Amino acid sequence: MSALTKASLAAVVAVVFLTTLKPGAAIMSGNVDCNKVQQYFTPCAGYLFNRFSSNPSPGCCASLRSLNAQSKGPVRQGVCECLKRNAASFPGLIQEHATSLSTKCGIPLNTAVSLNADCRRA
């Protein structure tokens, strides 16, 4: 299988995986619905799960800028907790891509993006 075919397959698997949550099953972190937070990352699946992708898409960055603009104070901390919870549950997530996402999209954050982030600093 060629590298391009593998990359395409990985992107399709990632999108299918991201869309399999049950709509009625709200997972909450404080006052934040983690399923809604996850939806903002759907356009980023091709970057987050594909080691051959070097940059997130413009749609990915636009979606994350929108999430960032809506996330202030305690909501931002809840979003951070959701991201940690969601990232830990996705096998195949490329941590280096997740870590570089905010920088590559030009979104300044108060804390490092990682599974061990201190969300109180978010």
UniProtKB/TrEMBL annotation:
Pfam families: Tryp_alpha_amyl. InterPro entries: Bifun_inhib/LTP/seed_sf, Bifunc_inhib/LTP/seed_store, Plant_nsLTP. It comes from the Eukaryota. Keywords: Signal. The keyword Signal applies. Residues 34-116 form the Bifunctional inhibitor/plant lipid transfer protein/seed storage helical domain. Residues 1-26 form the signal peptide. Coiled coil: none annotated. GO terms for biological process: lipid transport. GO terms for molecular function: lipid binding. Gene3D superfamilies: Plant lipid-transfer and hydrophobic proteins. This is Bifunctional inhibitor/plant lipid transfer protein/seed storage helical domain-containing protein. The lineage of its organism: Eukaryota, Viridiplantae, Streptophyta, Embryophyta, Tracheophyta.
